[in-house]
Amino acid sequence: MNILRRISRDKSGQVAILFALSIIPLVAVAGFAIDFQQTVKRKAKVQLVMDSAVLAAARVKQTGASDAEIRQTVQQFMDAQIGGLGGLDCDPTSVTVSNTDEEIDASILCKQTTYLIKVIGREDMPFRVNSASEYGIDKVDVAFMFDISGSMNSSNRLTNLKAAAHEAIDVLLPAGAPPELIEDTRLAMMSYNGMVNAGEFFDDVTGTTATRTYTHDVVTVVPGSDESDEGDLLDDVTVGLYNEDNNELIMEFGDDAVLAVEPDQLEYLAIAVTIPSGSDLEGQDESVWLRLRGDERHDQTENGSPYSLFGDSGGNFNQHDWEYGEYRLRIRVYTEDDLGGSRIYNRRIDFEIVEAVAETTTTDTKSYTLTSTCVWERDGANRFNDTAPGPGNYLSHRQAWFIEDDSYSDGGYWEVGHPSRPNDSKYDGDECRSHSIVELTNNRDVLGNYVTSLTADGWTAGHLGVAWTWYLVSEHWKTVFDGDAEPLAYTEPDSAKAVILMTDGSFNTEIFPGQGSSDQQARAICDQMKATEVKVYAVALNAPQAGKDVLSYCASGSDYYFEPESAAELTEAYRQIATSISDLRISR
């Protein structure tokens, strides 16, 4: 502007003439750059629209449409998408349908109106766009993974996911498609949060039943009566229990004694009284009178020590069969034989003969029955591959175990969850949703109803979702998914396998932390899955960076990874994935 002002004040005619002559090429150069940039943008837009148009036409072709209908589809799509672009004038689209090559070719010539270079007589900039798509039908097995953790309830994410999934079903299994397409395209679906509901496949993948009863024996120790109680021993006399077989003293006892005797010992016991050294009675005793009362009655006079209750023969105690019970024993000591002279001692003691019982235990069996078809991951050597389930390769499941605690009236309480994660409600196993697995099928109603039924809650065990999408298409899992749902062999000619992973969060839950976090386990599974040439598509919906990182890692390439931020972008992502899986490839 300063230059223009100086020129306007300059009275020299030469300067004005020179400026007038130079301004035209300057404007032409600047105008060309601007108009060219606008034309390049419009060409890119038309190219994108045409790519979509031929793909849409290819899907219509799969339904059995005529060539005329295909040409009409392309033209209508082009008119709807570029008709409102200002300054753009396009000829009718040229469309060629090759039934031999199974290809649709399209071409269009457009002219973009110029704005600045009109000063040099250039009214428009022409450009041509070409595109083609293939509509060949191959056998495809596809498994969808849907994140149904609690965060999917925010911002209509679950609602948007359902709409996008329905769109993908329509692309992969178009309504009215020819039988060969329907027969050769099968879809499977699974959803996960902190667990996966294995449904009817639970028995096969865990080696146990959906309804199972756990038991635990609470063992209580019952003290025995195998120890005798000597009671209050007497001061001046000694009362002894003897083994009459060998006259050996078993024990001394006194008032209120308890004599624990085994049943086979009852016939070999003897009771006898002696005067211990140092007693006031020592040297004065010549005879003793013993009276037994209770469950048995007996009186005995003895003139020699030891003074046996049932006498002796040749120095050996006489045999007597005792009975269990309570007894009283009167002891009187005399200074002469046969109870003569003075009575110098008179005392009664009470005692009891009981059965000797060893310490015993009682067992109280506790039981807990639960019904659940939900699973966590598996551990062991095959934790990251697609080896079929079996002994040593089963998926972990909800369990119950008993914690003994004497403060509980029942002797303890039951815990439910997984033993590797005790005392943690995050892993108690009740967050699993009711919708189960859908094995490979081409039934649109089954697939559509499953998507519609999805609800969200709980944590995010993403590695478990990754594993199950692989299982659903793995040739090794035909022992679980059989019949019409049996996955194709990896070497099946003209076939493809693909999985579509989806999450809106970070992988944050695993039952076996010793084998890595959920994120780390997911990456290990993806490595081995991609090694089998399964194509991995990944959709990170409004996900944090950690979620984006793991899905980006798992995807088979940058063209297989999507980061939609809106409902429209999510639907478009699933549409593009479905189109790619359908082998509808842009071949321009």
Broad shape: rod-shaped
Which regions contain 5 or more consecutive residues with pLDDT less than 50?
1-5
User: Main β-sheet, in a few words?
Assistant: 6 strands, mixed
Percent of residues in beta strands?
Answer: 25-35%
Quaternary structure of the protein: single chain
User: How are the strands of the biggest sheet laid out side by side?
Assistant: 24-6-5-25-26-27
The top level CATH class name of the largest domain = Alpha Beta
Helix content range of the residues, please?
A: 25-40%
Number of domains as seen in the coordinates = 3
The rounded Rg comes to: 49 Å
Rounded mean pLDDT score: 89
Superfamily at the CATH H level of the largest domain?
A: von Willebrand factor, type A domain
CATH topology of the largest domain: Rossmann fold
Structural class: alpha+beta
| Helix count from the secondary structure assignment | 11
